[in-house]
From TrEMBL:
The keyword Iron-sulfur applies. This is Aconitate hydratase, putative, Aquifex type. GO terms for molecular function: 4 iron, 4 sulfur cluster binding; aconitate hydratase activity; metal ion binding. It comes from Thermanaerovibrio velox DSM 12556. Pfam families: Aconitase, Aconitase_C. Its cofactor is [4Fe-4S] cluster. Keywords: Iron, Iron-sulfur, Metal-binding. SUPFAM superfamilies: Aconitase iron-sulfur domain, LeuD/IlvD-like. GO terms for cellular component: cytosol. It comes from the Bacteria. Residues 7-284, 285-407 form the Aconitase/3-isopropylmalate dehydratase large subunit alpha/beta/alpha domain.
Amino acid sequence: MGLTLTEKLLNGHLVEGEPKRGSRVGIRIDQTLTQDATGTMAYLEFEALGVPRVKTELSVSYVDHNMIQEDFKNPDDHRYLMDVARRCGIIFSPPGNGICHQLHVERFAAPGKTLLGSDSHTPTSGGVGMLAIGAGGMDVALAMAGEPFYLTYPAVVKVHLTGQLSPFVSAKDVILEVLRRIGVKGGVGKVLEYCGPGVGTLAVPDRATIANMGAETGATSSVFPSDEVAREWLRAQGREHQFVPLEADPDGVYDQVIEIDLSRVEPLVALPHQPDNVIPVREAAGMEIQQVMFGSCTNSSLRDLEAVAYLLRDMSVHPEVDCGVSPGSRQVLHHMAKSGALESILSAGVRILEVSCGACIGMGFAPPTDGVSLRTINRNFLGRCGHKTGKVCLVSPETAAASAVEGRITDPRDFASKHSKAPFVFLQPERFHIEDRRFVMPSDDPEKVVIRRGPNIAPLPEMGPMEEVISGTALLKVGDDITTDHIMPAGAKVLPLRSNVPAISKHVFEVVDPTFPERALAAKGGFIVGGANYGQGSSREHAALAPRYLGVKGVLAKSFARIHLANLVNFGILPLVFEDPSDYQRVDQGDQLEIRSQDVVPGRAFQVLNLTKGLTIRCVTPVGEGDLEIIRAGGKLNHVRSKG
Ligand code: F3S
């Protein structure tokens, strides 16, 4: 029986477990990436492991999220990241070099390899036929130390593409179509594997956009074959030697099939506040907008921004629209300057923002109160772009550009016909401008590298083992689809505290209930009660680490998002799933709960006592014995240390 491409990639890296759906397996990791928001913690953890040099083929530390330097905290963090990188054998990408995923696809992603990144959009590199997975910083630290990465062997979804996209419809619309069909939970436990004749019509940046936002379906990863288009990309990036052809066997067996005729895809928009709240742009057309943002790891490639420049040429951004662009990398910016695209964008009245993530998380570019902000980013969760009243809509670069001019949501096809614009055709440069000298390479004399730590870099808090009787208050009860942005917000105020757990923990759940940190500390810890898909969104491990620091011992939910579940384990928080989801109604905020740790056994229901209501609730833990062992030890670091 033949294999899917996903199986080929997984099986080629298998070091532990049976290669069959649903089984727990360990895989070898070839490459890692971190970004600054998660990287400081990942490197503090890597240092705590006591391994002097990384054992991966390649590890890169990017600074792209928070480059605001209004006091010492961020610059100190950036310097710490550079020092650790030089000492430990990691390539350091300084502020201004590019957004991690865009830059990784340009310079490092290689077909047939595995990549583990402490960012949930790491699957972007699946656009060139690599198996790229997002994880918490602790898992990335362990991968750098040469440990396998453990995951549940995923189901594989065949996304069969036929036809060709129509003019002014682009890759973003394809992934919005996938989200429209399967929703934000539709990819959980699965890899989305793209194939079919339509694949050959998509350039690598298009594939990267689709793979990037597969994360919004909850998928473990997304992967494209490595074909002549990938070879051409690698050649233009001066890396043809890294090309290997890769595709699924014709008789590979899939768990699910999604058919998409690209010629029938139309411009789509995800309305607030979920990426799967998708409708055709024509149905939202006319809605007034106050802001437009081009960029993010989803849509900041040269292809995307050339399309924007093409539509904005000889046009003006609507006077009431605040419009900004963040190019994805120095390489993209260079080509835009050379081709005249930058001039077109500037002349149209667009603000040039930094080559960074900033605006994506509302730093330096947030919508006004109740303002509609059209963005080419991947997430529109409540509060994601700076504050709760912003209404963020996710669209393609083409839709964003057309709407920026008209001041209202506009179908780019209507815009093109109104302004007599011929279809946009992107020609990939023969050879991209390669400027690798901005990367800081590992030191040849690592012993001599002194790691400088600013005053904001606090040591990792010590965590105790799991108690015999786990008891405490239900500190907070929340609904379905609670995101890591709800649990641990990002943004200019919070991100500089990422290397200081006591300080950042004061912001836990601040968009939901600002009293949470104080109440949790006063109650000496307890539980969180959640609905379905608890912890969806980013890989930020602070969403587990900071609640743990405040004393959270367990989370009872209807279900969990994959990366957050792994982060809970890594920081010793017990995840519990209601055996009967309707039991969610039988626990209220403020109830006293109690669990005997000896009752907690994988695959078997046990009782959680609700002492306040005098009833019991049957729960199971969604983790296996190996993970339970980690939780009992009080988290991964304790567990690794105990094994010597
Ligand atoms: Fe950065 Fe936004 Fe992507 S924060 S990594 S551009 S999702």
